[in-house]
Design a protein that fits this description.
The complex is a heterodimer of chains A (119) and B (893).
Chain A: H1 16-24, E1 30-31, H2 32-42, H3 51-63, E2 67-70, E3 85-88, H4 90-112
Antiparallel strand pairs in A: 1-3, 2-3
Helix pairs in contact in A: 1-2, 2-3
Chain B: H1 2-15, H2 20-39, H3 44-75, H4 83-100, H5 102-131, E1 142-148, E2 155-156, H6 160-169, E3 173-187, E4 193-200, H7 204-208, E5 214-215, E6 230-233, H8 235-242, E7 252-255, E8 258-265, E9 283-285, H9 292-295, E10 304-309, H10 315-332, E11 341-345, H11 346-351, H12 354-386, H13 388-396, H14 401-437, H15 452-479, H16 482-488, H17 493-532, E12 543-549, H18 559-571, E13 576-582, E14 592-597, H19 605-610, E15 613-620, H20 624-628, E16 632-635, E17 649-653, H21 654-660, E18 670-673, E19 683-689, E20 704-708, E21 716-723, H22 727-741, E22 747-752, H23 754-760, H24 762-796, H25 798-806, H26 811-840, H27 856-882, H28 886-891
Parallel strand pairs in B: 4-9, 6-8, 15-20, 17-19
Antiparallel strand pairs in B: 1-2, 1-10, 1-11, 3-4, 3-7, 3-10, 5-8, 6-9, 7-8, 12-21, 12-22, 13-21, 14-15, 14-18, 16-19, 17-20, 18-19
Helix pairs in contact in B: 1-2, 2-3, 4-14, 5-12, 5-14, 5-15, 6-10, 12-15, 12-17, 12-24, 14-15, 17-24, 17-26, 17-27, 18-22, 24-27, 26-27
Classes of the chains: A mainly alpha (119), B alpha+beta (893).
Chain lengths: 119, 893
């Protein structure tokens, strides 16, 4: 169950669930519930994660070495003591950046072919 | 807040199903996620939605995490693994222990498989018929609307003009549509085929909430006389006749000789509403096809109405509005009888009284399942005792109590899963068998499928039984003190006496339940025997029936001429001695009613208002009574001369004759028929025939009226021919004669006359067969239970019996003792069972014929059968007790 970063676990592309989970952690560490909230918000409800899906995904990402648990100094709220916070590791950030670039290339291509309007 | 707290508990329980590693790591976080999310939820609907999300997520997580946990374990070298490895260890050891006792394994699995299979089959069917919502959107809003006949149950059709008034002025219904079933001939490519169709108003598809999947429905204008000739076809017909060609939409098909444009195809799996007599309907046509004359007549109700109540309008409010509208219409258009409109939920109208059939079956199968569970419980208890030594030994070698219990629960779980799988297999076959061989007159059969739900029931019942009944012996054996067991062997008298009591109690329960099932089976069988000996009043042997329906436009001009010619031709078939026809054959399920007035029958106020005394009637041709083998008691039968130019005549059956005249001589009575035109002469009774079981084999003494076919023609005739050989031999030639005159006519049915007698018993025969099968299963299971208990008891007492033998007891005396005890136990169960059966057989009342629910003969036979089976099963173990070798028994241990 130890987290071993390994390159062969890096897929060709990320699933939307994983992409958005990583994205949710890109600015600051969050606890699980906040991650699922943000993902639901950002995707306008198109991706909703139940508790099992959420923590299963977090565990997988941790095993890939893309996230780690972290201490957050002043967590607020009634459930703070039970919460674990997650943050991106450098390798997680790299994976996320790579995926964002891939998507960007796709968007550029779509604009060139007039599928999307240029901004 | 309390609600969230309360909801947390089930969620925590659910989490226990996840792999332990995952649970330890994330369980608390998941609960806190749940709590936080639950806090945001509002009303009841939101809660249901929330739980749906949670359960879907849970199912998904279960699969993914268990899969991962297993995969991880398989990668871990053996011996190092934790939890999962122990699970595998338990599984392996369970398989080993089953291998040592294959008989035990077979008994448990067989018992569970049969019990659960039978229960799940009947439950699936009952659930599909009685409980499942109708397969339409918002089915609770759907109602059957119609005339309510005073006092009589059921709902009647409405005239086209009344429908228009209702449609214009109601405020309760989102839509109100009409339907009228009809059989029509589909011709064109391939053989002409009679199909079930329905003329429906344009709103039908909207009301039912199901538009065509391909194409569209018609606009209301098409319903008007002279409207566009269009049709919507069922998916099945489209597939079967046109191979699902999408190009059919827009082209034409020929129904009853008219070319119709195909507007749309209904979706696959659409179930036409049975409450509107649309079972197996394959085509829907606009109301423009209705007979214009009938349509303009406010008196004739021939449209079945279906409504969709507006959301927010209660059924009661809709009912009240209908009543008020009915009163208004009656005031505006006074006619024969008051129009009392009402409604019934469509689901209730669809299901009807199918509960009468399903309830006894459900009850019987419930008892059977209980017997099976008791048997398995018994087997598990015995096995627990048998293994107590092994358990104690393992305990002494350091296995913890929890570990031992877990080991035994793993075994039971395996048994449960195995039983469940077997049960599901039996149930899937059972449901298929029920649909294939079961009574076809039950409603909603088209909707019943063995599905995922079946598997779920089977699994829950099976695992529940084995785990529950496995737990008791598991906990008890694991508590066994080592010294007691290892030292005591089978000598632990005080304990095993309690066990014997418990097991005897289970045998009592089993024999109680099984005698109830056997009594029910016996009563049904008895009724069936009596019914099959009932004289139907006609001779079904040696006669055959061919049924012909002329297409609608032919009436009434061609029908008499056509049928005269056809009867003539049939009479000339070599070997045929008599030919005749009727509109409604006895026991065929067809029937018509009219009302008449006669000075000798006083009318109730209600009948007075409705236009006369109600009576079943049919039109028959001159040779009919001879062809049916029915006796004419007095007067004459109809003759060739009874045609429209001759005075109007009628015949009556014995029961009606007695109503018309106390001495039964009703010849010369004059009857004024309710649908006669003003001033038309009454019909005169010229003959009296013997009573025939016209409607049902188990109902005698219904008044019947016969009118000459050629004075009151119809486009439908059932032609009966009697010959020298069997009826079936005549059929090919009879059909050839029909096609000799009209090659394009479909023959609606062509069967031996005995078919109707046997078909009229089909429903009951099936129930009897099923109940008999359940009875036999119950008996077998009980016998197995008795045998097992006794064999085990003898085995346990081997030492004691051996001692007694060596002290001078004789073999036969020991055998008697064992048998006595067993019979005493059974007798207690039988007495209880007879008591219970007094209540249980009440459920069967509707199916009993000539037998009281407490019929002493059936009761005593059932007792003898169960006692015999039980005693028979005891013989083996008792004989073994007698044959024990004292020396060997003592050397044991």
């Amino acid at each position: 169950m130890s987290a071993q970063p390994s390159d062969n676990s890096r897929p060709e592309y990320l699933t939307p669930v994983i992409f958005h989970t990583l994205l949710a952690l890109s600015d600051d560490p969050k606890h699980g519930y906040a991650i699922s909230q943000e993902v639901a918000e950002v995707t306008e409800g198109r991706i909703t994660m139940g508790p099992g899906t959420l923590y299963g995904t977090l565990q997988r990402l941790r095993e890939n070495g893309w996230l780690q648990r972290t201490e957050v100094a002043d967590a607020e709220g009634p459930h703070a003591e039970r919460r674990r916070y997650y943050e991106l590791t450098p390798s997680g950030r790299a994976v996320l950046r790579e995926e964002a670039r891939r998507l960007e290339r796709g968007v550029e291509l779509a604009q060139k072919r007039a599928i999307l309007k240029s901004p | 807040m309390t609600r969230h707290k309360a909801a947390e508990l089930p969620y925590r329980l659910l989490l226990r199903g996840l792999p332990p590693g995952f649970r330890k790591e994330h369980g608390e976080e998941m609960v806190s996620w749940f709590r936080e999310h639950a806090g945001e939820r509002g009303g009841r609907g939101a809660w249901a939605g929330f739980w749906r999300v949670i359960l879907v997520d849970y199912a998904r997580t279960m699969m993914v995490e268990w899969w991962r946990a297993t995969a991880r374990l398989l990668r871990t070298p053996r011996g190092r693994g934790g939890e999962m490895d122990r699970v595998f260890q338990d599984l392996r050891s369970a398989v080993r222990s089953f291998r040592r006792r294959p008989g035990f394994l077979l008994l448990v699995l067989g018992t569970l498989g049969l019990g659960i299979g039978a229960a799940t089959t009947v439950y699936s069917v009952a659930q599909g018929i009685l409980l499942a919502p109708l397969p339409y959107p918002d089915p609770d809003q759907l109602v059957r609307v119609g005339k309510i006949s005073g006092g009589r149950a059921g709902i009647l059709s409405v005239s086209a003009m009344d429908l228009e008034d209702l449609q214009d002025s109601n405020r309760s219904f989102a839509s109100l549509s009409a339907s009228r079933p009809a059989n029509m001939t589909l011709s064109g490519e391939g053989e002409p085929e009679l199909i079930r169709t329905a003329m429906v108003s344009a709103g039908f598809f909207e009301t039912i909430g199901q538009p065509p999947a391909l194409g569209r429905a018609w606009a209301p204008e098409a319903d008007e006389p002279g409207g566009e000739p269009v049709v919507v076809l069922a998916h099945g017909l489209w597939q079967r006749r046109w191979g699902g060609d999408p190009g059919l939409v827009g082209s034409t098909v020929t129904l009853n000789g008219t070319a119709l444009t195909v507007l749309g195809i209904m979706p696959r799996g659409f179930v036409p509403p049975e409450a509107l007599s649309q079972r197996n309907t394959q085509a829907w046509l606009p109301l423009s096809f209705l007979d214009p004359e009938a349509r303009a007549n406010r008196r004739d109700g021939f449209l079945q109405l279906m409504g969709r109540v507006k959301p927010g309008v209660s059924l009661q409010a809709a009912r009240e509005e209908l009543a008020a509208l009915g009163a208004q219409i009656s005031r505006d258009h006074p006619g024969p009888g008051e129009r009392v409109f009402g409604l019934y939920p469509l689901a209730k109208e669809t299901v009807g009284d199918a509960g009468t059939t399903m309830l006894p079956l459900l009850a019987a199968v419930g008892l059977l399942l209980a017997i099976a569970c008791i048997n398995v419980a018994n087997l598990l208890l015995m096995r627990g005792i048998e293994r107590s030594r092994e358990i104690a030994l393992r305990g002494s070698l350091g296995a913890s109590r929890a570990r031992l219990i877990r080991q035994m629960l793993t075994e039971n779980l395996l048994l449960g899963v195995g039983g469940g799988v077997l049960g599901a297999v039996v149930a899937v076959a059972g449901v298929k068998g029920f649909l294939a061989f079961g009574p076809h007159d039950l409603p909603r059969l088209a909707e019943i499928r063995p599905g995922a739900r079946v598997l779920l029931y089977a699994g829950v019942i099976s695992v529940g039984t084995t785990v529950l009944f496995g737990l008791v012996p598991a906990v008890r054996s694991s508590r066994t003190r080592l010294t007691e067991k290892l030292g005591g062997g089978a000598r632990g008298h005080s304990r095993s006496r309690g066990d014997v009591r418990l097991r005897e109690l289970l045998v009592v329960a089993e024999s109680t339940l099984s005698v109830v099932v056997v009594i029910c089976g016996g009563l049904l069988f008895n009724s069936m025997l009596r019914l099959s000996r009932v004289d139907p009043g006609f001779d079904p042997e040696g006669a055959a029936v061919v049924s012909v329906v002329l297409p609608e436009p032919d009436v009434p001009h061609e029908a008499p001429q056509f049928f005269r010619e056809l009867l003539d031709r049939m009479g000339q078939i070599p070997g045929v001695s008599s030919v005749g026809g009727t509109v409604n054959l006895p026991l065929s399920g067809d029937g018509q009613m009219l009302r008449f007035r006669s000075p000798s029958i006083p009318l109730s106020p209600e009948d007075e208002e409705q236009g006369g005394f109600p009576v079943n009637y049919q039109q028959v041709t001159p040779g009919y009574f001879a062809a049916m083998g029915m006796g004419v008691l007095r007067g004459r039968s109809f003759a060739e001369g009874d045609d429209p130019t001759a005075p109007r005549v009628a015949m009556v059956n014995r029961t009606l004759a007695r109503r018309l005249s106390p001495d039964g001589n009703a010849l010369g009575s004059r009857l004024t028929l309710s649908d006669d035109a003003e001033g038309e002469a009454p019909v005169e009774v010229v003959g009296i025939v013997e009573d025939v079981r016209q409607q049902r084999l188990d109902a005698a003494g219904e008044p019947e009226l016969f009118l000459p076919f050629f004075q009151r023609p119809s486009r439908r005739l059932e032609i009966v021919a009697r010959g020298e050989g069997t009826g079936a031999a005549l059929l090919p030639e009879m059909r050839r004669q029909v096609w000799g005159i009209r090659p394009d006519l479909p023959v609606r049915r062509s069967v031996d006359l005995t078919h109707f007698v046997s078909e009229s018993l089909a429903h009951r025969r099936f129930l009897t067969l099923l109940m008999g099968t359940f009875g036999a299963l119950a008996l077998t299971l009980t016998a197995v239970g008795v045998y097992g208990t006794l064999a085990f008891a003898v085995e346990q007492r081997r030492r004691e019996l051996g001692v007694r033998l060596s002290l001078g007891a004789t073999g036969p005396s020991l055998m008697r003792e064992v048998l006595n005890r067993s019979v005493r136990t059974l007798a207690v169960g039988l007495l209880l069972g007879i008591g219970v059966s007094f209540f249980a057989t009440d459920l069967l009342r509707a199916f009993l014929f000539g037998v009281a629910p407490t019929d002493p003969l059936t009761l005593s036979l059932a007792v003898v059968v169960v006692l015999g089976a039980g005693a028979g099963a005891s013989m083996g173990p008792a004989a073994r007790a007698a044959k024990l070798d004292p020396a060997e028994s003592l050397r044991l241990e």
